[in-house]
Task: inverse folding
């Protein structure tokens, strides 16, 4: 093994000179330099193909009682190593993932006080840098409180950023595009300027943060393997970004016990936007799968008693009074309750008929009368059905149709209550034939004062996923912290929402047409998203003539999202009766795969467009999704990813000539043509449109 890093400076007479260490990525795309200043401050610089990415980044941590690890440090030792291997995920965008990096591990010691040691570990891949802080076990350090993390990312210019505000509690925002200097001004200004939602904290922006330089370099900052630590947001100071950890109820950042290591800080860099999407740095920095027998984990599609509540056709609660404080179960059913035995059977029939495995049912359990906005500790017990939801009969019926009902655990933010009930709730699931659960964390967190993205909740999500794994249960988490690649370690974590999903189009100003072209560069960098695509009845006026809300895409773009918005759990989110009006287009949803052998990123530009091709796992079929923002365009799809010498049929679902996300969203055409690896398809996408292609 060849060590690429060299110690080029060493301590000279009384620490007068800085020390520095250099590391290059395997193909030499990226170059890292770590420095220790004469006063013992560690910092780093990063270059991509000779261009500065991070001109100067601070490093270090400060603890409450054990001093600082950001200055007054002395060098102890440096270790280098290299790794080049590959591994197979349980499910994913490709069946084999290359893991190739060069590593530098620097050990420092406090010069004064307890003389505690800290280790800084850097891994340099060809498209990204990961680094983290490690506290080795040492006699003088046991439990300690983290006051702050000093990591910063000093950027080389006033880049364009796709960003959402630094809210400790939610990521359900649409993105704004600004220069960093503008973001700074807006983030520190009036919260209502940036969102229709209240921002409870306004310190900066959230990660993954996507940026582009004036020279066309793409830079993405996020973190990997967020365990036992708060989420990192980024404060903006000119062109420098500084780590801002989400605090706890009393203002501390984290409670740690040595030996300990922080999550990885990750900077993905490339001169091609497609390579940001193709980067597997975050997955590679996560621990391997810890589930010994993952055979219970099945990528799948689902339908659900779900969208009908969002569009107001039915209600979650039995009495149909929604948020009114009534004793719902004793009240008369309104006739609008969605999760009735008969209605669930209707969805089971539809799923069975079209080869869809899962049927999500929300609003099946007592508690929806006053679940929202009360900040109450005990709302749901997760085991008591409404009188018109026959658990046993539905278990029998679903099994007879080879369909699985998906459980719903809305916690209404009371994670403490969920923790108390979790074993009982999981046993109930196992006894009644459920092996997947959608969780939800709507509203403010109990324990009161904690935030969705603080250390307490990070530990909750991780406890929940591990307990679910011990019951062979798959999880789809709504309103959790944004993912950081932990689905590699816990592949029962099929998906998370953790961003502004399609649901916002049903009852709010919605998601602008550019939204889905940004999410893969931001939220999805950390892991799959349950975006709930597939809405065919685009305008909410079809449910109520007074409604102005609508999905901000064409119907064809909704199909494309099954490919562009990666997830091993995909919902066919619209109502069966809406699909029945467009069975020719629904055919794509039936056919599209949810697990893949390989993925080719054909073209991409954040906020503008992207086209992605994926090969179905273990099959010869390929699927392409191409989408655009509010501007129409022609997607040029070069099919050279296909094996040479074979002829395929491409079934092309695309926008009609007159399609437009607002004026004419349901216009689409379906055509067929022969293609080979030499073909290039030119596919016109309408404003807010898209195309979905099945190559078989
Ligand atoms: C918000 C979730 O994102 C949505 O999917 C769910 O229907 C509601 N909460 C109710 O739990
Ligand atoms: Ca949500």
Result:
């Amino acid at each position: 093994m060849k060590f690429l890093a060299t110690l080029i400076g060493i301590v000279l007479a009384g620490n007068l000179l800085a020390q520095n260490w250099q590391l290059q990525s395997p193909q030499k795309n990226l170059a890292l330099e770590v420095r220790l200043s004469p006063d013992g401050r560690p910092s780093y610089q990063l270059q991509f193909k000779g261009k500065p990415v991070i001109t100067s980044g601070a490093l270090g941590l400060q603890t409450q009682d054990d001093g600082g690890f950001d200055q007054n440090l002395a060098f102890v030792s440096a270790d280098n190593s290299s790794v080049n291997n590959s591994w197979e995920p349980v499910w994913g965008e490709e069946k084999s993932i290359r893991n190739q990096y060069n590593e530098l591990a620097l050990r420092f010691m406090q010069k004064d006080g307890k003389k505690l040691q800290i280790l800084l570990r850097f891994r340099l891949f060809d498209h990204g840098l990961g680094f983290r802080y490690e506290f080795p076990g040492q006699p003088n350090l046991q439990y300690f409180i983290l006051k702050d993390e000093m990591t910063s990312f000093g950027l080389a210019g006033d880049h364009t950023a796709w960003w959402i505000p630094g809210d400790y509690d939610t990521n359900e925002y649409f993105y704004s595009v600004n220069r960093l200097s503008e973001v700074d001004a807006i983030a520190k200004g009036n919260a209502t300027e940036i969102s229709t939602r209240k921002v409870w904290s306004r310190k900066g922006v959230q990660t993954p943060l996507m940026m582009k330089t004036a020279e066309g370099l793409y830079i993405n900052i996020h973190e990997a393997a967020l365990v036992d630590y708060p989420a990192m947001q980024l404060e903006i100071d000119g062109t420098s970004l500084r780590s801002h950890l989400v605090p706890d109820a009393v203002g501390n950042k984290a409670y740690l016990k040595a030996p300990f290591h922080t999550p990885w800080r990750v900077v993905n860099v490339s001169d091609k936007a497609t390579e940001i999407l193709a980067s597997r740095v975050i997955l590679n920095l996560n621990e391997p799968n810890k589930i010994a027998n993952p055979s219970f984990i099945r990528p799948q599609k689902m339908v659900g008693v779900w969208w009908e509540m969002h569009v107001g056709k039915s209600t979650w609660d039995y009495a149909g009074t929604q948020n009114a404080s009534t004793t719902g179960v004793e009240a008369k059913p309104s006739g609008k309750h969605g999760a009735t035995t008969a209605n669930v059977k209707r969805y089971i029939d539809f799923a069975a008929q079209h080869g869809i495995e899962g049927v999500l049912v929300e609003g099946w359990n007592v508690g929806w009368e006053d679940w929202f906005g009360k900040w109450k500790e005990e709302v749901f017990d997760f085991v008591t059905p409404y009188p018109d939801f026959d658990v046993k009969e539905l278990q029998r019926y679903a099994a007879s149709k080879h369909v699985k009902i998906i459980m719903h655990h809305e916690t209404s933010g009371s994670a403490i209550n969920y923790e108390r009930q979790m074993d009982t709730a999981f046993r109930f699931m196992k006894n009644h034939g459920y092996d997947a659960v959608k969780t939800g964390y709507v509203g403010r967190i109990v324990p009161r004062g904690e935030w969705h993205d603080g250390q307490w909740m990070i530990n909750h999500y991780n406890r929940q996923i591990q307990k679910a794994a011990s019951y062979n249960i798959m999880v789809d988490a709504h309103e959790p912290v944004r993912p950081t690649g932990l689905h590699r370690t816990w592949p029962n974590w099929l998906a998370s929402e953790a961003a502004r999903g399609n649901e916002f189009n049903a009852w709010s100003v919605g998601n602008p047409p550019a939204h889905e072209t940004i999410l893969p560069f931001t939220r999805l960098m950390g892991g799959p998203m349950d975006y709930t695509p597939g809405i065919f009845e685009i305008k909410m006026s079809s449910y109520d003539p007074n409604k102005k809300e609508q999905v901000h895409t064409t119907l064809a773009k909704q199909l494309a999202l099954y490919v562009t918005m990666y997830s091993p759990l995909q919902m066919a989110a619209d109502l069966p009766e809406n699909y029945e009006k467009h069975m020719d287009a629904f055919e794509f949803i039936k056919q599209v795969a949810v697990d893949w052998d390989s993925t080719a990123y054909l073209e991409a530009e954040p906020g503008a467009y992207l086209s992605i091709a994926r090969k179905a796992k273990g099959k010869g079929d390929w699927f392409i999704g191409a989408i655009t923002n509010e501007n129409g365009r022609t997607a040029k799809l070069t099919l050279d990813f296909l094996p040479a010498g074979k002829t395929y049929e491409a079934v092309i679902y695309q926008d009609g000539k007159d399609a437009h996300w607002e004026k004419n969203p349901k216009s689409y055409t379906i055509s067929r043509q022969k293609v080979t690896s030499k073909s290039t398809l030119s596919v016109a996408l309408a404003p807010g449109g898209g195309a979905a292609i099945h190559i078989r």
In short: The pocket of 1-deoxynojirimycin (ligand 1) is lined by residues 306, 362, 410, 440, 442, 478, 497, 503 (CB under 6 Å).
